[in-house]
Write a structure and sequence with these properties.
single chain; 209 residues; alpha+beta; nine-stranded mixed sheet; two-stranded antiparallel sheet; 3 helices
Length: 209
């Protein structure tokens, strides 16, 4: 979680984001100052530097319009072109992605953290083991298929157990895998990779109300 913004920093950030969406390019220091009644370019620069340090903006100091949003702050409500069709898996198996039950079009916003977008699938979570972090039985999990060696401890992962698909927090211990639920009514499972199959990291959760 990034540091909290002050009111003035938030005003500058929201102005930059709105300007980018409306004009397709970032504002200059002069335009920011005029819009927000900041007396000097130095004052604007101070706020931009704070936003950069807190991870909200990236700056190219060699350009008058050298501002861009970090990926996490791309506007999810602006509407993106190029929606991606992902396979929806009804029952998880080793060949599930090659025989999907359906396809679902997903905005690229939900795939920003995917390293290989072509390896993403949707599957239905089959238990409430991660209910304390908002993942419930029946939710659609957007999963990037990744070999367990590439996953970090504490990542939320999707794991195939028989024909079930669980979400769990992964902990690696030497050549063992521990799968931690957040709901105390479910047990932590320890196993050798292969008996249960790690499908990959969970990128997003979708549900119908």
């Amino acid at each position: 979680m990034r540091p909290v913004l002050t009111q003035r920093q938030n005003e500058v950030f929201e102005y930059v984001r709105t300007y980018l969406r409306q004009h397709g390019r970032p504002p200059t220091l002069k335009e920011i100052g005029a819009a927000l009644h900041i007396a000097s370019p130095t004052g604007v620069r101070k706020h931009l530097l704070a936003l950069e340090r807190k991870g909200y903006l990236q700056r190219d100091t060699g350009s008058a319009r050298g501002l861009r949003l970090t990926e996490v702050d791309l506007d999810p409500f602006a509407g993106s072109l190029g929606a991606v069709s992902l396979p929806v898996i009804s029952r998880i198996s080793a060949t599930a992605r090659y025989a999907p039950a359906a396809y679902f079009r997903v905005d690229p916003y939900f795939l920003l953290k995917a390293e290989q977008k072509e390896r993403c699938i949707l599957g239905v979570c089959t238990d409430d083991g991660m209910s304390m972090v908002g993942i419930r039985k029946g939710d659609f999990l957007l999963v990037e298929e990744v070999h367990w060696h590439q996953l970090r401890s504490a990542e939320t992962v999707a794991v195939r157990v028989g024909e079930e698909l669980w979400a769990r927090q992964l902990v690696r211990q030497h050549m063992k895998i521990r799968l931690h639920p957040t709901d105390s009514r479910y047990k932590t499972v320890t196993f050798d990779p292969g008996r249960e199959t790690i499908v990959g990291r969970v990128l997003a959760v979708m549900r119908r109300l």
